[in-house]
Amino acid sequence: MNPVASTTDSLADLVAGRREDILRRWSARLEPAPPGMSEELQERLQGMIKLVDALVLVLRQGAVETWAQGAVWSHAREIGLRRFRSGARVETLVQEYGLLREILMEVLDTSQRPLRTDELSILWRALDRSLTEAVAHYVQEHEQALRSRELRLQEILDHAPAAIYAKDALGRYLFINHPFETISGHERALVLGRSDFELFPQETAERFRHNDRRVLAARAPLVFDEEVLQSDGPHLYHTMKFPLPSVAEGEPWALCGVSTDITATRTLRQERDEAREQLQRVLTQLPVVLWAFDTQGVFTLFEGEGVTSTAVPAQVMRGRSVFEVFRDRRDVLEVILRALAGERLSTELYLMGVWFEVRLLPVFDPGGRVVSVSGVSLDITERRRAEQELRTSETRYRLATQATRDIIWDWDLVTDEIHWSDMAPRLLRMDMSRGPPVMDMEWWTASLHPDERERVTRELQQALDSPEGHWQAEYRLKRGDGTWAFVEDRGRVVKDLQGRPVRMVGAMQDVTGRHEAEAEAKRRAEFEQLLIGIVGHDLRNPISAITMAATTLAKREDADPRDQKAVARILSSAERAHRMLRDVLDFTQARLGGGIPMAPRDVDLLDLVRQVVDEVQQAHPDRRLEVDGRGGARLWCDPDRLAQVITNLVNNALAYGDAFCPVRVRLRGQPGTVTLAVKNQGHPIPQDLMPHLFEPLKRAEAREGSRAHGLGLGLFIVKHIVDAHGGRLRVRSNLQDGTTFLVQLPRQPPPRG
Predict the structure, then answer these.
(1) What pLDDT digit, counting tens, does each position of 253-297 carry?
(2) Which residues, other chains included, contact 495 with Cβ-Cβ below 8 Å and sequence gap of 6+?
């Protein structure tokens, strides 16, 4: 460039001479006027100084056609770039140029110098051309930034696990991410601007369109399960669609959708529900932060549901430097620098009071240089808390295994290793002098008793092969000192997703003491049965002989009255001995023989009650007995056993009741049951005896002047007879109402197992 000479009175000399005045006036009129001489004002002034100098140079050159070819206007493009990076609006840039034009006109008006028209034309054309260059470069930089942000967002969404897309109100696709290309089977360029009817089969497209209309009509998010036929067969997608209302009218003009492939889990209802719940949580609850920063570390994106958990507004973070925000966190700065160096990484960080799983993805230009870093942060505070609780639970488990006397074991079926609880060696009396003993599967199998080894191992294998995977066995296990322990072992099989057993967990309990006690009890019970059988057989015959002889003597007509009285006492004593023997045999049968035997048939219980009460009345002529029956009383029962029940209850009422008050026997028939009630007045049953009333050998003190006969087995036998009939026995006793025994019997007792 060769500047041309000019006269001292030229416009170029005038502008150059008044440059300081022009810049002073320009800076004074800036709106708003910046306080002091800040760095921003200094930068703007430097730009204007270069612009004025360039205008002077142009006035001296005078060749308008070559202005844009040289370096004269490079500073104009620099002004546009700097205004964009500082965040200024393009209107501000135009305002600055307009303000310079006004000040130049004022300076020229007050100069009192003759001005040539061609020079003024060159000045204004140069100023306009400079403004054009600055604005053009501003707009170019702005569009490039927008494209960069769109590319970042597109890349982030392309890495999402779900297909994300947007359609207009007519169903034409406006946006899709990479997973949606897989669904449609078309590349992005072939999908955008087309509808479902151009991409999918008719039936699928109609279903998509129907769901879209529902969303637009509801103006609210809706969730669907949508099936799409792809090259490898039908796929099921869990989809959430939501409308996008326009800014002006609020009417939905488009809708967005997020679709997740749940094909692999649709055969399992539980897994399908979990996938749906997980997707819903990701879309509506999962606190995720999407972010990006440039090579200077300045946040250009900071959005997502997870922003709320940080308590930091998104607009506050955008535009800030990560190096400023985390200047006190060396661990965070190290991760940022590694990402800026081109490393993709994932880590866990505690940021702004929240634990995040942070994934950083460097973005490269075509030359392989990092131009920005994008990423996603997932709030994992709850997961960290769960992990802490898991560690606490493991501690509790170790303490529990130390506190219990059970031996806990964990068998890894893949490696064939068994982990035993710490108590196992001590309870099994293992030799610990040479360190922890070897307690593997080979040791366990060898320690089984030879007589039981085949059975136990076979049952264990059957449990491993069974669908349920439950195992329980009792066997003898050889202790470390050579003695045998009876153990009760139980376990549960854990299977993988393919149903293959991979682990078995169980508990072993030493029941040697219980086993020995049961064996001793069995020997004692067998001895008692033998003894009772001998006693019952050997006593029944002499009692029967005494009864027969006494009956014969009682029938003699020439017997002395005193002899008859003695014979009556013999008969009474023999009968009482017979009842006691019968009670003892019934007691033995109930305790040892599995229950009192029954011979049921159809019986009118009212007739049976009257017959039994008449017999008792003959034995107690001085007492008053009353019978009252209402409703049908026929039922299926053993009359002999129920006669025992009635006899015992009435005799108890006589023995423990007031001698001057009657004993009332009441019978009531209901649709499905018959209720028998035996009531007497007198002292109530002691409260401390009530819980033990139906236990054997328990008996209250009889009333004064009476005798309680028997061994205390009557009520015990009564309860067993009532239970054998499927009935229910209750008792009420107080001073005001006396004592009442209630027997409720079903008309058709349940079959006995």
Answers:
(1) 788 888 888 887 665 656 556 655 664 455 445 567 777 889 898
(2) 469, 501, 502
The whole-angstrom separation of Cα 62 and Cα 56 is: 10
Taking the C-alpha atoms of residue 325 and residue 327, their distance in angstroms, rounded to an integer, is: 6
How far CA 192 is from CA of 10, 181, 212, 721, in Å, comes to 61, 11, 17, 87
Distance CA 617, CA 609 (A): 12
Instruction: Read off the tokens for 121.
Output: 């034309």
Exposure b/e, 600-625, CB count within 10 A at least 16 = b: beebebbebbbebbeebeeeeeebeb
- Backbone dihedral region for residue 130 (phi beyond 0: left; psi -120 to 50: alpha; all else: beta): alpha
Looking at residues 301-323, what average pLDDT do you find? 74
Most distant pair of Cα atoms in the chain: their distance: 184
Distance separating the N- and C-terminal Cα atoms of the chain:
120
Beta strands in 380-520 (DSSP E): 407-412, 417-420, 470-478, 484-495, 501-510
Per-residue pLDDT tens digits for 674-703: 999 999 998 898 888 888 888 776 565 555
Dist. CA 650–CA 677, nearest whole Å: 10
How far apart are alpha carbons 684 and 736 in whole angstroms? 9
- Nearest-angstrom CA–CA distance, 724 and 589: 13
Q: How far is CA 131 from CA 78, 99, 675, in A?
A: 11, 12, 112
Residues in the chain: 753
Residue 438 CA to residue 129 CA, distance in Å, equals 92
DSSP β-ladder status, 625-630 and 470-478: unpaired
Torsion of CA 644, 650, 652, 656, to 10 degrees: 180
Question: What pLDDT score does 4 carry?
Answer: 40
Alpha-carbon distance of 19 to 15, in angstroms, equals 6
pLDDT at 1 (0 to 100): 37
Q: How does DSSP classify residue 297?
A: -
Distance CA 306, CA 379 (A): 7
Is residue 588 over pLDDT 70? no
Q: What is the pLDDT of residue 715?
A: 85
- The average pLDDT across 184-212 equals 88
Among 36-40, 423-427, 441-445, which stretch is predicted with the lowest mean pLDDT?
Answer: 36-40
Question: What is the pLDDT, as a whole number, of residue 216?
Answer: 87
**Contact status, residue 327 vs residue 175, Cβ threshold 8 Å:** no
pTM: 0.32
- Residue 373 near residue 339, CB atoms below 8 Å: yes
- Own/partner long-range contacts of 286-289 (Cβ < 8 Å, ≥24 apart): 286/378, 286/379, 287/354, 287/378, 287/379, 288/376, 288/377, 288/378, 288/379, 289/356, 289/376, 289/377
In angstroms, rounded to a whole number, what is the distance separating the alpha carbons of residues 418 and 436?
A: 13
DSSP letter for 89, please.
Answer: -
